[in-house]
Amino acid sequence: MQILRNVIYKLLPRPRSLGRPAENRHRIATRLLILSRHPNPSVSYYLDERTKTLGEIPVIMKGLDDPLDGIESDGLFVIICRYIKPPHIRWLEQRRERLAGVAYFVDDDIAAVVAGNEANWDYKFRLLRLAIRPLPRVNRLLTDIWSSTETLADSLATAGHRIDVLAPLPAEPAHGAASAEDQDAAPLQMVYHATGVHRREHEFLMPVVRTAMEKHVNLHFEVFAGGGLARRWSRQGIDATRIAIRPPLSWPAYLAKTTHHAADIALAPLLAGKTNASRSDTKRIDISRLQAAAIFSRCPTFARCAVAGEFHIDNTPEAWLTAIDQLVGNRERRLAARDATRNSIEKMRLHANPAFPGICFEPLGGLAQI
Q1: Which end of the chain has less neighbouring CB within 10 Å, N or C?
Q2: Domain spanning 1-165, CATH architecture
Q3: Which domain of life is it from (predicted)?
């Protein structure tokens, strides 16, 4: 079966910048259009803060089903964020000569997700329909390809097709709701917030969380899971009064929840694999918003912006149980780990270039903005 998955992975189309010669690296743009299935985390993590640096440059955000009538195409730079539908492709094809450029931004190895065995079929079908199937037409339009990590860029790169890295650029850390431990020493709230694409991580954590909950009677646990994963969590034998199995939320609902409801401990496992190898460390942003002490897998993804005071551990049940024990039993270590992840957000901001690669934005009649 793995051999078949590898064949499928190699056969699926990849983004290619066929819309301009590779050496033409600098163009002038007077306005920006972002096409996206929004609101979504990709726009929030990578694009929102960068658009704020553009000053007077008009920034237009359009959803996948929004009409593009009335948008001036002369000097327009277009960012396709992961997904696109045929009407928008046709609009771009009809105006390609007047556009300043078209970039495709991707923050997942989408081919690996489709060929892998973790995502459900509904999600795979969405990726095939909105991300994979359009690529042959989209590639003829692309002047730029941006990926979220060096690893992802390396997996997508081919001779003659440059891929630039657009690292996560979070907003400045904000002080939201007070954490639960600041209000009351017990109980403690531990969370695992991940989608069903992280099935292996859910399965890894189930016995770990069950053992930790048996040991620490003041520990409460919240997990986002649907379908079969939710049923499996409910069968772990954890006290029903101390576990909350939440259905997955929309991105705006999740932002609202994590902005106004804090946690004490956040679990962030990431197991080895092709899909995970290309991921960025945006989970830090969510955990910082929760004001929680994080436990991270020891891996290149989370090593990128690691700071002193964080917990980075091997992916063994024993290591994860020990880390949970230490955070549950030591308030000072919890606070130090919480503050460390907040500091890592500042490190992420310092590491990220706020400019869009290769594009010079200049207001009509004005000076260049970046």
Answers
A1: N
A2: 3-Layer(aba) Sandwich (3.40)
A3: Bacteria
pLDDT in tens, the chain (370 residues): 788 888 888 889 999 988 764 555 567 899 999 999 888 999 999 999 999 999 999 999 999 999 999 999 999 999 999 999 999 999 999 999 999 999 999 999 999 999 998 888 999 999 999 999 999 999 999 999 999 999 999 989 876 678 999 999 999 876 544 454 544 457 999 999 998 899 999 999 999 999 999 999 999 999 999 999 999 999 999 999 999 999 999 999 999 999 889 999 999 999 999 899 999 999 999 999 999 999 999 999 999 999 999 999 999 999 999 999 999 999 999 999 999 999 999 999 999 999 999 898 988 765 444 3
Whether the predicted model's global pTM rises above the 0.85 cut: yes
Neighbouring residues of 342: CB distance < 8 A, sequence distance ≥ 6: 173, 288, 291
Give the count of alpha carbons within 13 A of 236, CB side only: 28
Q: Where in the chain is the domain with CATH 3.40.50.2000?
A: 188-351
